[in-house]
Amino acid sequence: MHIADITMFYAPASGGVRTYLDAKHRRLAGKAGIRHSLLIPGANFSEENGVYRVPAPALPFGNGYRFPLRLAPWRNVLKDLQPDLIEVGDPYLTAWAALDARRQLDVPVIGFYHSDLPLLVSNRMGNWFTPNVEAYVSKLYGNFDRVLAPSRVMADKLRRLGIRDVHVQRLGVDLKQFNPERRDPSLRKELGIDEDARLLIFAGRGSKEKNIPVLLECMRHLGPGYHLLLVGSYMPANVPANVTVINHFCPTHEVARLMASADALLHAGNQETFGLVILEAMASGIPVVAVDAGAFKELINDEGGLRCPPNDAGAMAECVRQLFSADPAAWGQRARAYVEREYAWDSVVNGLLGHYRAVQNAYGVPVVAHG
Questions:
Q1: Mean pLDDT of 188-200
Q2: Is the dihedral of CA 25, 42, 4, 35 positive or negative?
Q3: Which residues neighbour 103 within 8 Å (Cβ) at sequence distance 6 or greater?
Q4: DSSP for 125-165?
Q5: What percent of the chain shows pLDDT beyond 90?
Q6: How far is 186 from 174, CA to CA, in rounded Å?
Q7: What is the pLDDT of residues 274-283, one digit of tens each?
Q8: Half-sphere exposure of residue 159, counting CA atoms within 13 Å on the CB side?
Q9: End-to-end CA, the chain
Q10: How far from the centroid of its chain's Cα atoms is residue 113's Cα?
Q11: Phi/psi at 54 (nearest 5 deg)?
Q12: Quick one: which of 339, 342, 10, 5 has its CA closest to 177?
């Protein structure tokens, strides 16, 4: 079976979609009878180890992202590759290129709904456009042979838009990269904080939906003895004394070191479609305190940490105190065991292959093995 993934959500500073595609590409490479091609934007056309870069202009101030403007180059690469199945990873031009290629190749196309497009548009442009964006999502994803969503909350949103054949396919975490063995005992000295400080961390973009101000207010409630490390682009400069900011994109190995060297993860975002950073923290052997909203309801249970009411810095601070009044190290060990059991990438990829075979059978296409 030859699987082709196509998306514009792939850049040097990408988040969960790139993590998913890279993990999938590595694991499918080792499976007999499976070929995997990945189509992503690039400055020029190139191919290396099954990764095809298709020319697309860079987005101004887009942090490395490129936005495809011409459908034909993407459709033509798919036609040349002749995959048995196509998976779409964004709701933009590449999605329509995949559907166009389907008409010529007569193969099924799956849409993976990684981002809540109506919510993203609403956050940036207001609610005026929400009905139009929802109609667009309904039309586009109604064209796919199967739709995958990373969480139940996302799947339910799609079903409310009238989209049928929606399936929950959870993502996974790299258990080797994010590992308690990455803990660096010298980090507190490096940050210039007390050795006995209770070190919290948040890693991600400092975008509006992450609710960073709630984290800062939480740290004001907690006061001395607790310290927060904010890691990622677009972080605020004006922060309390017990907050340290690393205001740039950090490579995965550095995030893994910082994560394993902290005592717990804080997350105030209440619109997460999945929340990969939650799994990365648990895999690093630290528990989490996050809001009781979005996909976090599905990710965080008693094994992984605590949930608190959204947009309530005082309640979040109380949850942090509750966490440290117990045994956070033991809680971190339980969190690690939980993600090992439930979120290993190998089991995720096996689940994906189940979806692919089911769609091919329903489509009437024989499952073809490629070397």
A1: 94
A2: negative
A3: none
A4: H-GGGHHHHHHHHHHHHTTSSEEEESSHHHHHHHHHTT--S
A5: 80
A6: 24
A7: 889 999 999 9
A8: 12
A9: 9
A10: 11
A11: -110, 130
A12: 339
Coil vs helix vs strand at 24 = helix
Domains of the chain by range and CATH? 2-172+344-363 (3.40.50.2000), 180-342 (3.40.50.2000)
Determine whether 32 is exposed, middle or buried from the number of CB atoms within 10 Å of its CB (0-12, 13-18, 19+). exposed
Q: Estimate the share of the chain in helix, then strand, then coil, as percent rounded to the nearest 5.
A: 45, 20, 40
**What is the token pair recorded at 199?**
């070190």
CA distances from 370 to 32, 81, 82, 315 (A): 9, 12, 11, 54
E strand spans, 150-276: 166-168, 198-203, 226-231, 243-246, 264-267
Rounded Cα gap, residues 136 and 134, in angstroms: 5
pLDDT in tens, 105-139: 999 999 999 988 888 788 777 777 888 999 999 99
In the block, which residue shows the tokens 């609610």? Answer: 127
Tokens at residue 280, please? 């990365």
Handedness of CA 34, 38, 44, 49 (dihedral sign): negative
